[in-house]
Design a protein that fits this description.
By secondary structure, this protein is α/β, with parallel strands linked by helices. The chain is built from 14 helices and 17 strands. Strand 10 (206-211), helix 5 (215-225) and strand 11 (231-236) form a beta-alpha-beta unit. The longest helix is centred in the last third of the chain and has 17 residues, at 428-444. The N and C termini lie far apart (46 Å).
Length: 445
């Protein structure tokens, strides 16, 4: 890790887990075409889309197979060419079953409107309204984890004014390197994508934020940014969870998003760097979000890698391409070690928000013995949201919905800092997640 106290960061809580960026030097490889894909409908926050294909239909890569229902929703496209098979519930990375479309791969035919050339297109001949519409049609969602539909984030509510666009290239989660590699290998596309987002929002200022442990990306993008007016690159201090929207806004702009508020409330919009690249493809190449870069890594993995993967590809295919399942494997996680979730089945499909697959050795995957709380206050000191994690855990454990809501449990970003620092190994985040889930279920009923 590279630490520099002169660099900007957020000032409340945070921890310093080991980077373990084992795949940082692994260039992006295109994963071989799978024999079949399972494309979940529920790949974003909001309403699931409406299926517009039937079993037996032949589809091309990039063809719409499910249309967004309502404003907060997203289109789903076929990531391959082939024949539609079963349309039924399938377990995804959440551990729950959701409706999905199975497609048996036949060839690799793409929609004719998609430009598959590698030439960087810099001219942006679209109006802000047209940009937002094209992003919506392309089914682009946030690829930093939340999977919020990107067209919604660009539709600034009436009465709000945005002056700064932030491109999140922090990638603070240990092990993950997909965003790092995209910045190194697609820097000009990211710059054009940033200009597209600036035009859509009507802002003249954009900051690309990168943690200081990615000096090569900082230097490369800083050099290229000289040719793009209004775009600057900022190296940030290495501090988890720097990539959280609220933490990033505070670090860069010194503005604090209020409890229950959104970045709009302080004049900012944040987009992940991988999302920015997908937006470039959607606008300049007419390519919907049908593939993304995914890190496959772990201390025992034979070949830590960054793969360009078709959405719907089974996780097991990625692990096989990285050398297979190590004998000492204890757990496989979708995402990183801090915020990721263990997979119950390696046949689950890669989704739009899948940033990484982490294979953890048995010795590191076992839960440590839990002891009584020492009342040391370390979880409070580590919380970047200024919450009292243990208190929230106890309230959630007691199923006190009213009190957990009153104590702002929904402000928890589930970064895992509290559990990481707890000397008694208490499952703080687990119970907070249960508490949040109950509140959200109650709100829907």
């Amino acid at each position: 890790m590279l630490f520099d106290n002169r660099l900007k960061t957020f000032h409340k809580g945070g921890v310093h887990p080991e980077d373990n960026k084992l795949s940082a030097g692994a260039g992006i490889e295109e994963l071989p075409m799978p024999r079949s894909v399972i494309i979940p409908l529920y790949q974003h926050i909001g309403a699931p889309p409406k299926i517009v294909v039937e079993r037996g239909d032949m589809v091309k890569a990039g063809q719409v197979i499910a249309v967004h229902e309502g404003f907060v929703s997203a289109n789903i496209h076929s990531s391959v060419s082939g024949k539609v098979g079963k349309i039924d519930p399938v377990m995804d990375s959440s551990g729950y079953k959701h409706m999905a479309i199975n497609i048996r791969v036949k060839g690799d035919d793409w929609e004719d409107s998609i430009d598959r050339s590698h030439e960087v297109a810099t001219d942006i001949p679209y109006s802000p309204k047209e940009i937002i519409e094209k992003i919506m049609q392309a089914g682009v969602v946030g690829q930093g984890g939340a999977a919020f539909p990107s067209h919604v984030k660009l539709s600034v509510p009436e009465g709000k004014k945005v002056d700064t666009l932030i491109i999140n290239g922090v990638e603070c989660e240990p092990y993950l390197t997909a965003d790092h590699r995209v910045m190194l290998e697609k820097p000009h596309e990211i710059m054009v994508g940033t200009k597209i987002l600036m035009k859509a929002l009507g802002v003249n200022r954009a900051i690309i934020a990168i943690e200081n442990n990615k000096r090569d990306a900082v230097e490369l993008l800083s050099t290229i940014a000289r040719d793009f007016s209004g775009i600057s690159v900022e190296a940030l201090k290495v501090q988890y969870p720097q990539g959280g929207e609220k933490q990033l806004i505070e670090a860069l702009l010194g503005r604090e998003v209020p409890s229950g508020g959104l970045p709009y409330d302080v004049g900012a919009v944040v987009h992940n760097v991988g999302t920015t690249y997908s937006i470039y493809l959607a606008i300049q190449k007419n390519q919907p979000l049908i593939q993304r870069v995914v890190t496959v890594t772990g201390k025992s993995i034979q070949k830590p890698s960054n793969f360009l993967v078709r959405i719907g590809t089974p996780v097991i295919d990625l692990i096989a391409a990285a050398g297979g399942i190590p004998e000492d494997t204890g757990k496989v996680i979708s995402g990183g070690p801090m915020m990721g979730k263990a997979l119950a089945d390696l046949k689950v499909p890669i989704a739009k928000a899948t940033s990484g697959i982490l294979v953890i050795p048995e010795a590191e995957s076992r839960r440590s013995e839990v002891y009584q709380c020492l009342r040391c206050g370390k979880c409070i000191e580590a919380c970047p949201m200024g919450l009292e994690p243990l208190h929230l855990m106890l309230l959630a454990k007691g199923k006190n919905n009213d009190k957990t809501k009153e104590e702002n449990i929904l402000d928890c970003m589930e970064c895992g800092s509290c559990s990481f620092v707890c000397p008694s190994n208490r499952p703080i985040l687990d119970y907070i997640r249960f508490g949040k889930a109950r509140l959200k279920k109650e709100a829907k009923s």
